[in-house]
Every structure is written in structure tokens, then in C-alpha cells.
Amino acid sequence: MSKLNVVSWNVGKRRLAIESLYKSDFDIALIQEAPLASKSWEARHVDRGADILNLSDRAKVVNLTNIPHGRRPNHDEISTSAPGTIAVARVTPGDDEPILVVSLYARWEKPHPQTPTNWYVGYADAMAHRAISDLSALIGHTDPRSHRILVAGDFNLIHGALDSNPLALPARDRSVFTRLDSLGFEFLGPQFPNGRRAVPLPQGLPENTGNVPTYYTTHQEPSTAANQLDYVFASRGFHESISTHALNGDEEWGLSDHCQIRIVVDLG
């Protein structure tokens, strides 16, 4: 086995989108806004979240069970700060060395009821930081090359947003990307030309932005999608074997308001 084909996709709770993945050429799906099992701990607190699906027999996938913080997790568990924000699986591609794959979903959160605010949607950086705190448990060495971890998902943040961007909280958003870098994760985009660029340039972004739109609003369609909310990261060193591409063309967008992110891991 020389390559592992992975997709990251916010499926928007659309079961037809999930069904379409089983007819694709992907081996593994890192999905967000997945309908959660009715008896799970996550489902008692939130109705959608991150999940990982095994789509082929080209790799052995063992999902770690999410547990709430309070006790040290067992080998096959991961402690989770907020339900639905993170899913982790150990993937063994044939005879190759195992890797860890992580689906991350930074869902929106609103300020406290007593807090004066005009943020009617809320903010996503807090959920991203909670997920990163959980992800930190998988880091056990200061040398990033000691780890083989792939992280992808819907961060609900705009990479590189200027301070004038009305759709972002730029300083808070930057703290998420900085924190991942400090943990030894390399930012893998996808960035142009690995995906269609938005035209015209979205407001609040520098002219040289590499962002590619991965989400469209109810007032848009794939051809007019403007902003990127979905990203990929990998352990520094391991990242050199990984390529990413936003499938954001009109004909390839898919059955959700987020496009698919194709991730190819070259196993040599």
C-alpha cells in the first residue's frame, strides 16, 4: 500500500452525504456535524459532532472511545473536554507504521447570558481550544517527528483574517493556529492552487491570501462561496508525506454546504 486516501468533510447531518462516501474512492472519512448515536455520551449533550468512518479494507481503523474528563483514559479512550468536538482513530495501513487521525469540529458557542454582546452567531475559537487541549494528550515528546498525527476538520475560523474582517475575531482566531504550531503541527491548508480561489476577493483578507472557499451560506451557492473554514494539519516531519486539495469546483462540491477536502498520505 503506497497511498492512503482520506477525506475531511462537514456533512451537515446529511445522511445522503454520508452514504455517498461509501461509494467514493476514499479509505477514511474525517467528518463533522455527523448525527451522533442516540446512546452515546456526546448525544446526551449535543446532537452533532466529529466522527471517523472506515470506508475500505485498505487499512485497519480503530476508533478511540470518547469519555468525559474525570479519570485517566485507557489505551482505547480519549478524554474529551466538550462533546462532539474531537474524534480520534488509530489507523494501520497494511504493513505500514500506524498513524493517528483526528477529526475536529469547532462548533459555535455563544457568550454567557449575562454578557453584553452583539455576536449573534457566537465564537468558535473556544471550542477549537478545547479540542486542542484534548489533542495535546497525544503529544508526548518535544520533537514533532516522534508523532504521526493527521488533524483535519471544520474550525469555523478564517485563516489570515485582517483585523478589519467583520466575519471573524482575528486575534482570537490567530491564537488557534499559533497553538497548533506550538504543538508541532504544520499547517497544510489547503491553499491555492490546491482548490478554486474566491472571486472577487472576500472582504477582510489580504490580497495575497491563499485561502480557498470551503463553505457557502444560505445566500450563496458553490460558485459564489467566499470563505475557508476547513483546514488540515499534521505533525511536523510527517507533514512532508501529505498533500491536500479542496474539492470546491461547482461539479465536485458534493451534498453539503461544506466542500470535501481530499488528503493523500504517501506511505512510500
Structure description:
The structure is a single chain. The protein has 268 residues and is α+β, with helices and mostly antiparallel strands. The chain has three helices and 13 strands, in the order E-H-E-E-E-E-E-E-E-H-E-H-E-E-E-E. It has helices spanning 15-21, 125-136, 170-182, and strands spanning 3-10, 28-35, 48-54, 60-63, 65-68, 77-80, 86-92, 99-105, 149-154, 185-187, 230-235, 242-247, 260-266. The protein has a six-stranded mixed sheet with strand order 4-7-8-9-11-10. Helix 2 (125-136) runs parallel beside helix 3 (170-182). It is globular and about 50 Å long. The model has no long low-confidence stretch (mean pLDDT 93).
| Sequence of secondary-structure elements | EHEEEEEEEHEHEEEE
Q: How would you sum up the global shape?
A: globular
Radius of gyration: 18 Å
Strand order, biggest sheet?
4-7-8-9-11-10
Name the poorly predicted regions: none
Strand percentage, roughly? 25-35%
Number of beta strands: 13
Share of helical residues = 10-25%
Largest sheet, strands/sense/barrel: 6 strands, mixed
**How many helix segments?**
3
| N-to-C CA distance | 8 Å
By secondary-structure content and strand pairing, the structural class works out as alpha+beta
Q: Mean pLDDT, rounded to whole units?
A: 93
